Predict the structure.
Amino acid sequence: MNERTRSSRRRFLARALGAAGALFLAGCERLSESQWFPKVLAAGERLSEAAQTLVTGRKAMAQEFSEADLSPSFRSNGTAEPDSEAYAALAAKGFADYKLEVGGLAASPRSFSLAELRALESRTQITRHDCVEGWSAIGKWKGAKLSAVLDAVKVKPEACYVVFYCADPMADDGTDLYYESIDMDDAWHPQTILAYELNGEALPIKNGAPVRLRVERQLGYKHAKYVMKIELVDSFAHIAGGNGGYWEDQGYQWYAGI
């Protein structure tokens, strides 16, 4: 598949998912409550992932660009600032007290300060963000390789997924934090990073400061912002809606490969 074809496919999938999401939220909830419709969606998702793997492979690299291709600005997707007193307190101190907790199925669970994340093996990449709302932007990201974080905590063999919990509260009482997840193939991929810089500057709050996930071969809603905690799990059975992510709990596909 050449880059022009891949680019067109990314934009088509972004727009299609956006339209599908709008239809779902506009009145298709009754279908999701039936016994048969979720099974149809799940079967379609498995076919989509299988087709993507067959065409491009799970180790394929997302297209990277030059600095001449950078977008004039990189808009915010989703939340522009978490409605959280704890997050506000961290931001007020320039995230000096930030700690990323990493645990679950890890032999050596630990937390990382922002300085410790910056000390890990990093990667800089210029990639395109494709949002399901129908827009795209190219940005230059720098961050710690997620693989370096996983190496540090010694992932247990039974771990199948990496779950990212964010600063965004999804309930009025501050519980049910926004969350997202990826599998171990994407977790170990060299382009999967915990970004702390955008276009050579510290990551802005509107773009996910102090740390956001960049998983470049998937659509924008998988790129969790304001990451506060990482959990290694063998299933989603104990997590929120059990579908692997906030938007997935609303009916979006878990695997959003592009």
In short: The mean pLDDT is 85. The first strand starts at residue 99 and ends at 104. The chain has one domain: 61-245.
